[in-house]
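Hello support,

Our group uses your service weekly, and this is the first time we've seen a run hang past the timeout. The protein is N-acetyltransferase 9. I'm not sure whether the cause is the sequence or the server load. Input pasted verbatim:
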Amino acid sequence: MLDNENLVLVGQKCVLVPYMKRHVDHYNKWMQSPELLEMTASEPLTIEEEYEMQESWRVDENKCTFIILARETPEQEITPENALVQSMVGDVNLFFNDHDDPHSAEIEIMIAESSYRRKGMGLEALRMMMTYAYQSLGTKRITAKISTENKSSIQLFLTQLGFVQISYSQIFEEVTLERVLTVSGSSSTFASTLSEENGAAEEATKAVAGLVGDLTLQSDRDHPSSSSRNASDVDKTETEESGRKNGISVVFSSAKTNDGDEEEEGDWIQEPATTALFETLELNDSDLDHPRE
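Update from on-call engineer: The timeout came from a worker crash unrelated to the input. Re-ran successfully.
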């Protein structure tokens, strides 16, 4: 997607940068791993094929991809000059494949480096991507398709990201989870319906548990998806407080729409932990694969 080709999102634990030619060699090495190929239901690509895919994704308006880089410490200064030299960890993606709803996207994430799993980095990257999707891409609904074998990832999306289950496929052995994004007010904080959301998450957890068993079991595998390239990280670290500088007020609502226009809203209370704190930088033209004219 060209919208993010020069954009850097700087969080507390990670830095999101566009997928560029400089990342292809490392990414291709990741995708030779039998573990990651199994996680993502992918076939290994040659390096030439990987470069072709990177370029096709760069210009595809239905795909938004960020490479996840590690931030050494929250105090480390990230600038356009050093943003691209941080360690590669994985990637996070949005796929706009719902032709009936252009404001809906499927989200996926892969933490490829095992040493960076279980550290809250995937959780923060997901929150950053959801916030960016709403603020910059006009996304109103986020879905995630997760294998029923990946109980920890299901629990992560239900309890820490406020998703609710909307369907279950016995054939593909996966659940589809959803989160609806709506606006509330004009302050620079984020809000969510804890009472409604927690209740919805509890009911969804029970529903999924009835299909796939105890959701507290450990797993770090995710589902094959429409992209056939990514998997979900299943961070289970504690939730960090966050909010977006100079942002708009967003409600990440678990409510469904009645007719596609009006949202069912409950009693909203402030809960900044449902989104991620990040700053936005632009890369220098000299660092871009295709410098702007």
